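User: Last request for today: this protein with zinc ion, please.
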Amino acid sequence: MTGATVGSPAARRLHLPIMNFLILGVESSCDETGVALVRQGKGAALPALLAHALHSQIAMHQAYGGVVPELASRDHIRRVLPLARAVLAEAALPLKAVDLVAFTRGPGLAGALLVGAGVACALAAALKVPVLGIHHLEGHLLSPFLSADPPEFPFVALLVSGGHTQLMRVDGVGAYALLGETIDDAAGEAFDKSAKLMGLPYPGGPVLAKLAEQGDPAAFKLPRPLLHSGDLDFSFAGLKTAVLTQARKLGDALQERKADLAASTQAAIVEVLVKKSLKALAQTGLERLVVAGGVGANRQLRALLDAACADRGVRVHYPELQLCTDNGAMIAMAAAMRVQAGVAQPVHQYEFDVRPRWSLHETLHERAA
Ligand code: KG4
Ligand code: ZN
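Assistant: Here's the final one, the structure of the complex with zinc ion:
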């Protein structure tokens, strides 16, 4: 990518210490359309969320038992501009006040990503302001900085979404070292697939978690994959098979034992996430843990992590509950923090591409190059 066009007002602003930038963020990587406005902080102050709006496609995909990519793209097209108008109205700001447009460049569904990227680049071109493509996971990772209790660097991050399960050491914006990750299914996927096997509706994770509240977590012995592997990697594919075997064994009795099976499944996933997070903290010697991504909304995970970390004098930070799953605020926030930290250069280049498969660590090397 090239640098900002020399001579344009926004480019001139980019060469000054950037302060007070108004950033419009667009998220459209999967089944949620999110748009938000974030105002960059002055000096070392954290950026502030002015407004955010979200449209979830859950009701639309529910009839199909999962996300239908083509329907997702079409729905993003319908929602994104009305959501942008809604956040501008909420913040009482005109579109022309926007200084930078950020969008999710990947990973995610290609068609869905193209909608957000296309709209973001078209808006930026019309406004003659720069654009910045953001890695979806970096959005999740930095989303706790929007909470009332923001973390400080350095920290260990447990990133648990529908597609990713990673432990990272985070020393600053753009300074992420991978400590461990899943070798097969992600934690969210384990929740979703187990839920499906039990006949629960999409989206499986939160439905399974709700049902688990009425069940006995010790009712069924399910495997804790790689719990004692000695490293910080995860594996959840075997758990899903064990849930399937158990469901088949129960046969007609599954209906009345569903809450117990849900609670046992959740207990297995959560125990592995908690134990590996503690191991990462011990290994790095860090005393702060940040949990981000959709599974971070899980109450049981939060309760057990809070208890275990309190015992060890470790502080745990989460995004606000409503910002755990996908949203535009985290994309605008990541853009604000990247620009403020000087690790990203927004560009006046509106030929966009998207990266449906994109590892966060790959982006760091790309950006360093
Ligand atoms: O971060 P996210 O919204 O999207 C991705 O980037 O993947 O995460 C979605 C995942 C799904 O697998 C969903 O089932 C899971 O997060 N999830 C939960 C809960 N809320 C969302 N899993 C367990 N308990 C929850 N309360
Ligand atoms: Zn996500």
